[in-house]
Amino acid sequence: MGRLTIATRTFVSNVDPTPAAPRAAQPFGYAFDGVRFELGRGRLLIDGVDAAAGPLVLNLLAVLCRSPGLLVLRQQLFDALWPRQTVSDDALTKLIGRLRETLGPYGHAVVTLRGRGVRLDASVVEIEAPVDAASLPSQSRLAVPLQDAVNEATVRPLDAQTETPARPAWRLWLAMGALLFVVSLALWMASNDGSRSAFDSDMLLPSDPAATVFSGFAITMEDLDTAQPGTADLLREASNAVDHGDVARGMVLLRVAHDSDPTTPVPGALLAYFQARKLQPVDPGLQAEVATRLGAATTPYVRLLAQLSADVETRGDGGTPTMVAMVAMRPGAWRLQLRIAHQAMGLRRHGPALAALQRIPDHGIPADLIMTALADRAALGDAEAVAEALDRGALTAAPAEYGLALRGRLAWTAGRVEAAIALMDEAAAQAVLSNNVRGELSARISAATFAFYRRQMDADSRLLQAATLIRRNTTLEAQLPEVLAMRAQLALDQGDRQAAESLLESAASLYLSTDFRLWLEVYNARLGLILPAGRFLGDLDRRTLDQLGHASAYQLADAWTAQTAGDLTAARTLLAAARSSGVDDTYLREDAAALEAVINGTHSTCRPDPPYPNLLRFSTCRIEAIPRDAWATGSN
């Protein structure tokens, strides 16, 4: 569906389009039937169970709750949910469907009038804040009452959106930042041989934890540069939420901090980064607001942070030079270290990836990130050092599931697939005992993916179990597209093309990053076009993809499409074009090698390890043209 410009979209209706007039004060929340929506806590309860809905779903529900029984026009929903943005009608339709799914047995209350708007057909009552509503920092610490700030962050009024222009000095700082990038990148490239860094990983831990307000980015009180103590408390709460996997709540808290403290650019810069990572649609005005807060006292590190979100969103390198410059200043920014490593892995640059991973400490940071860093190090050839870290006590203080999951990854890297699956199952069971939903999901997806690769009979039931767990915890839904896609291939293996089509269509209906859309487009083409060509690209035009450095991906998808049509000459030509555009430097290299093997009737090696960032690579390594055990000896 083509993109629609919100400013020119008009609607004609004989129904009063004006929602109920805004109240003088926002309520603590709303309730209807078995639904309890606590605005003040950013929490949605369905029959008393936390639904863990994402920010956009909560925003939509809040808009509807403010006008129960009244039709809210689609234009008003666009303005409330995506101010100053160009968003397709399809995006709103999918969001409405996600709200219905989140509400479960009460989803029928969300009534749509085709092409016109949405109505919440329920008796909604306002609920007051309980006396002990203290899950968020104290209101007394904030210049703006926290309750009002949370409500404002969760549901932004339709007429409260104003865009603030950036200061002219911003361009000067960009130029200065660019010079710093060059110097920092040169320093980073000097360590690209993958050898152990000369400094000990303890250097990455803050010398004064009390001065740190957002640990994963090594943000300090000096960076914050504010007289409002409540802002630091909010950032610590947000950091803790992110570290425990609740990114949606962390983003709400960052929005509260940004809106309640007009002096510091840090909360808004962090929020823009998470938005740019596609955890929710980007607010284009937020970056401009952050820019207006940069002043003479702003640290160089924060200036780079303010630039990072724009680089992640618009640069084909995912903002890696900016992150490299930042970790050169703050080696303790371990979340950026991990992101740099994963960006390098995605570009097949395993030496720099290993160097970045080795800088991440094996203690003093969240256990799941320790496990991820150590497992990825093992996959990149550092298994002996990882085993030594385990012997030294890495993850000893963490819940048992993390150590089990790491040993499962080590078994997979060593080619002991059955042992890897058994260890992941044990890790999932331990995570259930620990009430660690994120750890359980990670272990279950790993076990399911390994079973999928080995073509085990229980692979689909494992994937279905993972999908069910994700749907119960919508903050984890970023992993759902891959799970659905792998189930589609299993359905196709069984000759059930209709089920495969339904599963892939479900994946296409989710909010997807550009990378995932491209991966799924290639995946769909490789499976023989279960869905029409271009379904996952949607409104992404090829000129934009070229600018983002993604030409090789759609060229490869075209090559698979030609092969499916039986035009091997065109398939070879398009494959050559994809390789000229650099597809062999991405995690689609296996797809390119597999296509060449299919065209020529030969075999190729495949290495589905490490699995980051694209689990769909496992499906490439399953096709008959490639030996199923080739990854044990395959090259990088």
From TrEMBL:
* Pfam families, per the entry: Trans_reg_C
The protein's matches in PROSITE patterns, at most eight in alphabetical order, are given as: OMPR_PHOB (PS51755)
Q: Which GO terms describe its molecular function?
A: DNA binding
One GO BP on record is:
regulation of DNA-templated transcription
TM stretches of this protein = 172-190
Which keywords appear in this protein's UniProt record, sorted alphabetically? DNA-binding, Membrane, Transmembrane, Transmembrane helix
Listed InterPro entries: OmpR/PhoB-type_DNA-bd, Sig_transdc_resp-reg_C-effctor, WH-like_DNA-bd_sf
Provide the organism lineage as a comma list: Bacteria, Pseudomonadati, Pseudomonadota, Gammaproteobacteria, Lysobacterales
User: Residues annotated as DNA-binding region?
Assistant: 27-122
- What name goes with this protein? OmpR/PhoB-type domain-containing protein
**Residue stretches making up the OmpR/PhoB-type domain:** 27-122
Organism of origin is Ahniella affigens
